[in-house]
Each structure stands twice: as C-alpha cells, then as structure tokens.
Amino acid sequence: MPEFDPDAHKGRPVTIDDEGERTLFEQLRIQEVHQQYQTSYLDLVQKISQSDTTKINTQKDRELFKTYNRARTDYQESLNKVEEYEKDFRVKCFARMRSLILAVLFFDRKSNTRMTKFNAEKLIEIGALQEIPECPRGGNYSIIYKDGRRLFHCSIHGTLRN
C-alpha cells in the first residue's frame, strides 16, 4: 500500500456559507476526511501487527502514529463543523416552536378553548400567524402532553423544553 501523504490531500477547510447550506464540494470533503481517517487507522493497526513489539523505540514508534493522529485531528474538526451546522438548524427550529407557543396561547384566549392538537390553519384563521412556520430540516410540529403540560415537538429536533 502506498504511503499516505496528508499534504497532498489538503483542500480548503469545510465551511458553511451565509445561507446555511453546504456545497457539494464540502460534503465530499467531509467524506474524504472520514475515508482518510479510516485508512490511517487500518494502516496503523497493520503496522503495529507487523512491528517487533519486543523492542520498543519511542522515537521510531512515534512515527507510526503521526499519520493517524493527523487524520484523526482533521476528522474531529470536520465532525465539529457538522455539529455546529446542525446546531444552527436546531436553534432555528426551537425559535419557531417558541413562536408557535405564543400563537397557541393567543388561540386559547381568543377562542376560550384549549388547542389540544396542533392545527396551523386555525392559527392563521384567527390571525395568530401570518404563515405556517416550518422546521428548517422539514420536520413536522405537534403538541404532546407530558406531566399534564402541553409541549411542542418537532419530528426531527425533538421536544422544546422551557
């Protein structure tokens, strides 16, 4: 197997543009970093199994881990960027659910009934909402009951806790 040269595979780092969408290049870069990480790990395991473990030379053995450590660092940075990217969507979703709570409370007061099942059309009808808020990832909103309380729930991001 040829020696892995990490400098030959360095491209521009994964970034998220202002609109919050990754380009195809960035998605492929994340996949490439993951594949490099897996390859370096398998190479490390193979090198360890082939090396003489009766004599340990810390200077020489440090070189065994160099490629793996670099690939692991790149992979962890990519995972952190993906996590930040997803966190942004979760924050936007929860903000929309908070506005839905206010709209439902407005509906409850105006109609003197308690909305038990989420119905966006009714909220628009009474003027509590101008348009139906949508989850940025395409999830569906619903009202769930827990411990006698109404909570908003997104099918992708989970339940909004106060």
Q: Overview of this structure, please?
A:
This protein is mainly α and 162 residues long. The protein folds into two domains: 6-89; 93-159. Helix content is 54%, strand content 9%. It contains three helices and three strands. The chain has a three-stranded antiparallel sheet, with helices on one face. Helix 1 (24-50) runs antiparallel to helix 2 (58-111). Mean pLDDT is 80; it is low at 8-20.
Describe the protein's topology.
Blueprint: H1 24-50, H2 58-111, H3 120-125, E1 141-146, E2 149-154, E3 158-159
Could you give a quick summary of the protein structure above?
The chain is mainly α. It contains three helices and three strands, in the order H-H-H-E-E-E.
Q: What are its keywords?
A:
3-stranded antiparallel β-sheet; 3 helices; 2 domains; 54% helix; elongated; 162 residues; 3 strands; mainly alpha; single chain
- Tally of distinct domains: 2
Oligomer: single chain
Mean pLDDT: 80
Radius of gyration: 25 Å
Number of strands: 3
Give the low-confidence spans: 8-20
